[in-house]
Every structure is written in C-alpha cells, then in structure tokens.
Amino acid sequence: MALPNSYLNDLQNNICHVTFIKKDGSFRYMKCTLKEDFLPPQKEIENEIQKKKINSDVVAVFDIDKQEWRSFRKDSVEAFWAERKWKQKLLNGNPEK
User: Fold this and answer.
1) Alpha-carbon torsion 55, 68, 8, 95, what sign?
2) Quick one: CA torsion of 87, 7, 15, 73, rounded to 10 degrees?
3) DSSP readout, the chain?
4) Cβ neighbours for 53, distance < 8 A, ≥ 6 positions apart
5) Do 20 and 77 meet the contact criterion of CB atoms below 8 Å apart?
6) CA–CA separation, 13 and 19 (whole Å)
C-alpha cells in the first residue's frame, strides 16, 4: 500500500495508526503522531540533526504508546489511517476509505 498523499498533514493534525513490515520481516502496528500537543519538549539537538543523513524514504513519528520517537519506511506500510477521519467516516455511515 502506498501512503496517502495527505499522510504528513494527517500526522500533524491527528493521531494516526500505521501497520508496516519492519526490516527484520516482522509485522508492527504503531499509534503515532506529529501533532504538537502530544510531542515531548524539544531538546537542543541541532548538532545531532546535522550529523544525520536525510532519508526521504523514512518517516519519523512520535509513538503514542511507547512515548518515544520511532520511524518506518514508506514502502513498508501495509495500512495507514488517521483517527479523526476514520471516526468521522463511521459517524457518516461510510467506513470505507
């Protein structure tokens, strides 16, 4: 499954759910977000960021359950949905994508 074009906006404005295949081949479910209300206080990490190579194939997110930063490869995603959008579709009687 390809990530929806709105995935970044969904992550920044909702709690999202993603299932994906990890590098080791195991299946993983994660409840995650990039919504500021849920993110931990930012540390001064500018030097660390500059050391890292940017990889546009990877999405870094905050894992709600583990309360830690995690990432997943875009091409490994099996399912992705935003909580608010899914609830709205259920209320409207249309749980399909």
Assistant:
1) positive
2) 130
3) -PPPTTHHHHHHHS-EEEEEE-TTS-EEEEEEE--GGGSPPPP--HHHHHHSPP-TTEEEEEETTTTEEEEEEGGGEEEEEEHHHHHHHHHTT----
4) none
5) yes
6) 19
Each residue's pLDDT tens digit, 56-96: 899 999 999 999 999 999 999 999 999 876 555 545 555 44
Strand partners, 82: 16
- Beta partners for residue 2, in sequence order: none
How far, in Å, CA of 38 to CA of 33, rounded? 7
Write the single-letter amino acid at 25.
G
Q: How far apart are CA 65 and CA 92, in angstroms?
A: 28
**Confidence band of 97 (pLDDT split at 50, 70, 90):** very low
Query: 76, 74, 61: which is closest to 31 by C-alpha?
Result: 61
